[in-house]
Amino acid sequence: MYRNALLAVLAAAMPAVAQAETDLTVFHAWPSHSTWQTEIADRYTARHPDVKITFQAPSTDYDEGLVSVIRQSLSGDAPDVFMVGSHLLGNLVVRDMVRPLDDVMRGKDMAALGYTPEVLAFTQVNGVQYGLPWTSSTPVMFYNADLVRQAGGDPDHMPRTWDGTIALAAKIDALGGDVMGMYYTPGDDDWMTQNLLASAGLAPITEDGTIAFDTPKGRQAVGLFARFHAEGGQTAISNTDARQQMYAGKLGLYFNSTAAVRAFEREIGGRFAWGTAPMPTMVEGGGVAAGGMAAVILTDDPEKRKAAFDYVLYGTGPEAQALIVQNTGYMPVNEGALPLLKDFYAEHPQFATSAGQLDRAFPWFGWPGQNGARISQIVLDNMAAVANDQETSDEAAAAMTKEIKTQLPR
Amino acid sequence: MPPTCRWSPDVATASLPAGGLAALRGDDATGGRSRRRAGLALAAPAAALMLVLLFAPSSLVLALSLTDYQFGMPGMAWVGLDNYAAMLADPNIRRSLANTFLYVAVVAPASIFLALLLALLIEAQGRLRGLFRAVFFLPVTATLVAMATAWEVLLHPTFGLVNALLSMLGFEKVRFLSDPDVALWSLAVIGVWKLVGYNILLFVAGLATIPRDLYEAAAVDGADDGWGRFTLVTWPMLGPVTLFVAVVTLIRSFSEFETVAVLTLGGPNNATAMILYTLYEQAFRFFDIGLASALAVAFLGFVAGVSILKVWFFDGRVHYV
């Protein structure tokens, strides 16, 4: 009799206990992101009291985040949800650390939830869905409107081609003083170089499998970087130095991810007029590179996977995406966020440029095989050699082709 | 290691008549054995720690350097000396090694002799001695990462203080950290700045231990000018300190990492890559643990080489008081 009563009590308690104990560990890069990452989690758990979300201390960058997750996964305690840099997703796949989302995505109408096929393709590897894009960005042109006007340009109609842009930069550079015409950041990896290729209508590996640097247009795209220095007045300084130069009002045009827009707003304030404009193109119909971070689920526990996916759906849903956009300058990955952002975009047009480029954004790109980071470094080194007159752009393109070939899977 | 030659294997002890052995060693056999036991027991904790913390990891690194292990990948294969061959064939790694040796060749002597000179000047100074000691020692106590940011501001290519000064004096501005021909030298200057304070402190301590009467004796012998006092008394008496400073400085400049990681990331185009940064990059960005281990072995070899050179070659030639 007692036993039955005990069982009844247990049976009644079970679901409640199971509900209260979904514990998700989340890990992301960039400590500066923790405010809005936490905000998303707080809003989610307010609606789902049965879920508890714990954040691991954020890593300083994407690379370090990946190292940490690999290490944790070797010892069997990887985080349940991980925001991986788009270019590093392949590293998780090749190590078998992440399973496709097929199990949790079954029966969900992703299109109705606001995910376009293009956005879903961002986080596919060989056509398999491994995650959902958590943030997404494209590079844009930032300009100092005062300097553009002084040089005879029109901030409301910035040039759309590289030829026009370089000509404008040259005029700004000629203003003299400590003013620099332009700075196209080489970045921390090969993403900004991918963007030069995209502006020439090329993916880093073309459809027939050629490395883009090995094509006439690819060489011309690398040549753009040489022209920025030779004609546009760019000097080969570090990105940090260039940013300080921009904040000081001494840089005309600056090219980098739209994610910088929030920092610009904070650092420049109302000291001078500035704005963003679409990335110029080299050829008619040229595109822009896209990148960001992908939310992947690392746990194997089916119940946890379900809960984790629900959280990822919330984070990539309209409300959370609108929050991310306003906090960072990234663009929304969910179409449902656009109506929510209408007023914000009207007030902050600098934030809207990137979203306006989405139709010509190239898919996220990761080099096949496991030498992606090495290839990024090869590209960075050769672009630095171009910037410092150690190599001509054709020599650099040839060197990159040759060196990248040795790093790709045979 | 002296202990190894003191105790012979038990087999040898057993096969010899106890009295004969005791006679050979000149002490009582049982007393010797308990002394040996006590010695072993006293040495054991340190030896065990050394084994666990030093020899085991080093051997593991040595073993890994002979494999193609990729961080986090399931398997690995034995590749013999391939990683070492790759290390010597890779132009970027060769560049990194060359940079490291150039950096050491500039930074080590500069920071030793500058420190010696400054220590002599500071000690000759009367009232402001304490202030100077503190000023020069400051870089040692400050966090280098924070200080590196300060250097970044000082060396900004357009409005850094140094460039402002240069253009005021009519010179061209210099891209201190982003010009491939200059960047390594900029890091070397920062390296000297970082090491000199520590070295000054050691030299000052060394100077304080020199007995005053030696100078008096030297003066009686006719060495009463500064140079004479220095060559006859100060310099020889500073021998042990100088040797220690030299070894520490060599090893520390060889292991330069922070300034590279914070200020240049080894760039532009590998102009400032040095061995530890390259090792880090190979292991934690490229995940090539095999190659990184080979670099680690080379690094260990160098550090061990300097230490052994110190013990075997120089210790005997330095005058200890």
Tell me the overall shape of chain B: flat
CATH class of the largest domain in chain A: Alpha Beta
CATH architecture of the largest domain in chain A: 3-Layer(aba) Sandwich
| Tertiary shape of chain A | globular
State the assembly state of the protein chains: heterodimer
Q: So, the CATH homologous superfamily of the largest domain in chain B?
A: MetI-like
Radius of gyration of chain A: 23 Å
Walk me through this protein's architecture.
The complex is a heterodimer of chains A (410) and B (321). In chain A, the strands form three sheets. In chain A, strands 2-1-3-11-6 form a five-stranded mixed sheet. Chain A has a four-stranded mixed sheet with strand order 8-9-7-10. In chain A, helix 10 crosses helix 19 and helix 18 runs antiparallel to helix 19. About 1% of the residues of chain A have low confidence. Chain A is built from 19 helices and eleven strands. Helix content of chain A is 48%, strand content 14%. Chain A is of the alpha/beta class. Chain A has two domains: 186 residues, D-Maltodextrin-Binding Protein, domain 2, CATH 3.40.190; 191 residues, D-Maltodextrin-Binding Protein, domain 2 (3-Layer(aba) Sandwich), CATH 3.40.190.10. The radius of gyration of chain A is 23 Å and the shape is globular. The longest helix of chain A is centred in the N-terminal third of the chain and has 19 residues. Chain A starts with a helix and ends with a helix. Chain B has 321 residues and is an all-alpha fold. Chain B has two domains: 63 residues; 236 residues, Orthogonal Bundle (MetI-like fold). The longest helix of chain B is centred in the N-terminal third of the chain and has 36 residues. At the A-B interface, helix 3, helix 11 and helix 18 of A face loops of B.
